[in-house]
Amino acid sequence: MSGAAATGVARRLVIGHLFADLLNLYGDRGNIATLTRRAQWRGITVEIRPIGRDDGDALTDVDIAFIGGGQDAEQVAVAQGLQALGPALVEAVRGGTALLAVCGGYQNLGHAYRSELVGDLPGPGLLDAETEAPRGAPRRVGGIVIQLEEGSPIAAGGRASAERAGHAGAETRLVGFENHSGLTRLGPGARPLGRTLVGWGNNGGDGGEGLLAYPDEGGFAGVRIGTYLHGPLLPRNPHLGDYLLACALGRTRQDPALEPIPDDAEWAAHAAFEARWRADWERGRRMSRTRAGRLVERLENLVGF
């Protein structure tokens, strides 16, 4: 039992859902539900607070800020909204608010998002990244599995939970679903959330997916996470949800220790999705190799090799 629970001190959490009416692609609202339930199961009181463009004052006591994904039209509206909300959001995260940004939200919170369709949309630079969607760029659609860095506190926090559920080692990975045409490039000092084992990730070239800035890095007390993992992300990655909760509780000097809860279903979902995505990815690679071989054979026949 944690110190807060043992002493009878009530713990409270405020979750700010940014632009909830515009950004909720692929069930991203499920991330809010997951954070809420995982907190409530531990006796933590939760308030969900919608945050729009003119709600900067409402961010002052938000513990976790979440922003999801959307279509291009919604991204334009959000980018315009961030012109007003951005400074307050930057100050909140600088003061310790934990941030999770998924897909369109990830793109909007970088330095800039550029495409022929929407033009050049400047962002608040909360995430050291820029995104471009070149004309004719293919959409990267499908399951994705990423490997967390060695020594990751996200993995460390989920190790005992995964072992109890019979999935030891699964805590070193995250699973999800990606659907984007944007190519995201991180700044020179930025750290990816993980390395892609299955899927394309940030740009399909450097092997990285998402962005992770730990608390107290870059002048920000709050952890900052950006990712392309939809699905939603947190129901099948309980270790990431708990990491966000622990960071948020520590922000307000509440006991960040989280009591163990049964996660058998969550880890089973994690394992099932990972197995499926790996199988689909390998099947696609075999088909690509077969098509490439046939093309080479036709070319050889044409030139008389």
Any chance you could write out the topology, listing elements then pairs?
Elements (H helix, E strand, L loop, with lengths): L2 H5 L4 E7 L10 H12 L4 E7 L12 E4 L4 H24 L2 E5 L1 H5 L3 E4 L3 E4 L6 E5 L6 E8 L5 H12 L8 E8 L2 E4 L7 E5 L9 E2 L1 E3 L10 E4 L10 H14 L12 H40 L2
Parallel strand pairs: 1-2, 1-3, 3-4, 4-14, 5-7
Antiparallel strand pairs: 5-6, 7-10, 8-9, 8-11, 11-12, 13-14
Helix pairs in contact: 2-6, 5-6
3D structure, described in words:
This protein has 305 residues and is α/β, with parallel strands linked by helices. It has one domain: Class I glutamine amidotransferase (GATase) domain (Rossmann fold, 3-Layer(aba) Sandwich), CATH 3.40.50. It contains 7 helices and 14 strands. The strands form 3 sheets. The chain has a 6-stranded mixed sheet with strand order 2-1-3-4-14-13. Helix 2 crosses helix 6 and helix 5 crosses helix 6. The longest helix has 40 residues. The radius of gyration is 20 Å and the shape is globular. It starts with a helix and ends with a helix. The N terminus is likely disordered.
